[in-house]
Amino acid sequence: MSTFLIEPGAKLANRYRLDHVVSETGGATRWKATDETLARPVAVWTFAEGFPRTSEVVRAARATSRIPDARVTQVFDADDTSPVPYVVEEWVIGSSLADLLAQGPMEPERAAGLVAEAAEAISAAHAQGLHHLCLSPSKLMWSSGGAVKVTGIGVDAALLGNNVPQPGAIDAQGLGNLLYAALTGYWPGGPQSGLPGAPQGPMGPYPPGQLRQGVSEPLASITTRAALPQLVGQMVPGPPISSPAEFCSAMAAVPRLIPLPVSPAETAQQPEPGTSRRTGEFDATNSQRRSSRNGSAPARSNGARPAPSRMDQRATRDKGGSAKRILIGAVAVALFAAVVVGAWQVGSSFNPGSDEAVDPSASTTEDEPDGAELTVFDINGARGFDPMPNGDGDEHSQNAHLAFDDDPNSSWRTQGYWDPLEMQKEGVGLLLDLESSRQVHEVDLLLSGGTHSVDIRVGDSDEVSDQESLDANLPTAWSGSVSGEETLTLEESATGRYVLVWFTELPENDGEWRGTINEVEVRGT
What we know:
This is Serine/threonine protein kinase. It comes from Nocardiopsis exhalans. InterPro entries: Galactose-bd-like_sf, Kinase-like_dom_sf. It is a single chain. This protein is of the alpha+beta class. About 25% of the residues lie in helices and about 25% in strands. The chain is built from eleven helices and 21 strands. The strands form five sheets. Strands 12, 13, 14, 15, 16, 17, 18 and 21 form an eight-stranded antiparallel β-sheet that branches. It has a six-stranded antiparallel β-sheet with strand order 1-2-3-4-6-5, with helices on one face. Strands 7-8-9 form a three-stranded antiparallel β-sheet. Helix 3 packs antiparallel against helix 8. The radius of gyration is 30 Å and the shape is globular.
């Protein structure tokens, strides 16, 4: 029976209900399924009729189930004699390395801890004659139960065919690639699992120590020896690392931290037996999710930036936002009273019985004075703005709200870059949605980390694919350098629904270049 005739809802072995397709690999299909007997989610592989390696995959799955390491994804069932051959595996709930890197590179010690755990699992598999051969950021998981999991051991290699001359070297390089990605946020072999490809030098990808400061020399050397063997002997001493066992041995002396933060969207469970020997050794202070920007961020070695010298003034002014709303209400009441009095005076001037002379200069309406107070516009949404083709379309949008939450100690930050932007892209920024077109006069910014080169762009469309459409849809209304807290007054008011705080040059912080917005406020009429 062909896999391609199977539809969601089909049941295998009168037990495993196929829910939906996750991926397809040359005639093998991976499903998310439900084990109805035990009422739990599972992953199920099925195979197209005539798939040449069905028996090899089933044998590899059975062998994988005998590896005595809980970090290896469990195999629950495998059968190549039924009308539809299948393999049933554990469905890992948690975050992949790609998910963990969505906030940027990890702290070096945590990167070392995560990948070292994976290396020990791969090494245990090699001791049983099993390999992976397809290590990628999506294959390394941090489960919601607090355990490192490596998916695809044995099965992935069998799907592609095990006949490779040096499987140990391939998996050692795969581990090096994972460590390179965890340290830098780049994948050395080109874009992979949502990660951008590493910047290239004359000899290939730059070593991790050149992309990020704070990586110890031993850790940088191990990464290069495993991931970039072509640089060994020229940029780093020592031989290439050619097996998972060698990788584990090299990592033994490197300081490392485990566990990693668990996603707050899932309930943290007790760690699974047999995983990290250090699981649970850190308190909640050091285990916050990287999406939090209040305090130290595990994703980076540098924490939240100290506020500028005017922070106290800003905090007093913005505290809760309630004082500002009260003031605006008081002004509205005063203006209403003035209109009533003016109307009464005008009415009196037309009253024949009035003894007072009419002032010929009086008018029923008055022009708005130059010093009229501007309205603070509500920001109804925001996102990190990193348009293609040089960007990846997003820039930590999940933290965009922290730039206008009335808390100057929280912030939205760009990714960490290896130069001020001049070599990588035209710019990057934060796009604010005012919900409807407004006349913008001022933008108040509170930045930290150093001097930023900033454009304020205003327009009614956020459709941007290149510099030309950026200039057309979000033209520049203000340009200059900003550090700390500054009010940017537009020489001429600009009208639009969207306000883009666009960084064209970033300050350096701990060897990385990044932009940080603690608070932003848009005012106008």
